[in-house]
Specification:
cadmium ion binding; UVR_dom_sf; zinc ion binding; UVR_dom; two-stranded antiparallel sheet; mainly alpha; 180 residues; 3 domains; cobalt ion binding
Length: 180
């Protein structure tokens, strides 16, 4: 695609401006982008070295930290990483850090991803088995919950659905178990 300003060079920069809910887009070559006075690439972005994960995530952490009333330093029990160190580096030290910093990470993940559970896409060929297994596991969990809440009619319906899945697996001749 050609630059929308000079129509001579290839547009390598795609700018999107969002002001008061109004979106405007422009595709420019590097030299035309530098000429526009209100778009100073180096001035607005800083040097390329400054664009890093900690800098990008810094705004998320600061807004989350403002919502947390306690200023007690959280430390990972396994690796000893502090939350302040994590904020500065943008890297967790170990798998326990997710648990240790969860009260700070969960709101950030929810803001970025829209939810805390990743649903994702499932491959068409090999994903059928995965979807079936997940459905089976979820039905078993719902059944346990219904039993604990003494909703026996709902539990009976769920039990029948589970049996249908188990029977359909044996009818097709699949000997694999669905249990995890």
């Amino acid at each position: 695609m050609l630059c929308e300003k000079c129509n001579k060079r290839v547009a390598t920069i795609h700018l999107i401006k969002l002001i008061n809910g109004e979106k405007s887009e422009v595709r420019l070559c590097e030299s035309c982008a530098k000429e526009i006075s209100d778009i100073s690439l180096v001035g607005s972005l800083g040097s390329i070295d400054e664009i890093s994960i900690p800098n990008i995530l810094g705004g998320f952490f600061e807004s989350i930290d403002k919502n947390k009333p306690n200023k007690i330093e959280v430390i990972c029990k396994k690796c000893g990483l502090t939350y302040s160190q994590f904020k500065a580096s943008g890297q967790l030290g170990c798998d326990e850090c997710y648990q240790s910093f969860s009260s700070y990470l969960r709101p950030m993940f929810k803001r970025i991803q829209g939810d805390l559970e990743h649903i994702g896409k499932v491959p068409k060929r090999s994903g059928v088995k995965l979807v079936e297994k997940k459905k089976y596991v979820n039905l078993k969990k719902e059944l346990q919950k219904a039993i604990l809440e003494e909703e026996y009619e709902r539990a009976a319906v769920l039990r029948d659905k589970i049996k249908d899945i188990e029977n359909s697996r044996t009818e097709v001749g699949k000997d694999e178990k669905l249990d995890l």
